[in-house]
Amino acid sequence: MLEIIGWIVLGAIAGYIAGLLVKGDEGLGVIGHIVLGIIGAFVGGALWGILTGRGIGASNDLNIGSIVVAVIGAVIVVVVAGMVMGNRRVGGGAV
């Protein structure tokens, strides 16, 4: 249970960092970036597990490497959300 809480906290930090790294006006705010960071931490961890051949969710270690992977996953999720939300905020689609 503590590992899950640790990953949620790590994801929240990663989301905050991703919000600072990815400048855009997707209208998510700090809380939105933190939530996307939590999702991104899981996405980043899954992608890293696939790329390294360890499998999804194979690592439970919280270290510098996992922070980097979580931030990369959070940036990916924030960018994708920005692209999706950007179209909706401009007026509902293509003009």
Keywords:
95 residues; mainly alpha; 3 helices
Describe the fold and architecture.
With 95 residues, this protein is mainly alpha-helical. The chain has one domain. It has helices at residues 2-21, 29-52, 64-90. Helix 1 packs across helix 2, helix 1 packs across helix 3 (64-90) and helix 2 crosses helix 3. The chain is globular, with a radius of gyration of 14 Å. Residues 89-95 have low confidence and may be disordered.
Any chance you could write out the topology, listing elements then pairs?
Blueprint lengths: L1 H20 L7 H24 L11 H27 L5
Helix pairs in contact: 1-2, 1-3, 2-3
Low-confidence stretches: 89-95
Q: Let me know the largest β-sheet.
A: none
Helix/strand structural class: mainly alpha
Shape by Cα distribution: globular
The CA-CA distance between the termini, in Å, is 48 Å
Total domain count: 1
> How confident overall, as mean pLDDT?
74
Count of DSSP strands: 0
Order of helices and strands: HHH
What is the number of helical segments per DSSP (H or I, 4+ residues)? 3
Mind telling me the C-alpha Rg? 14 Å
User: Portion of residues in helices?
Assistant: over 70%
Percentage of β-strand residues: under 5%
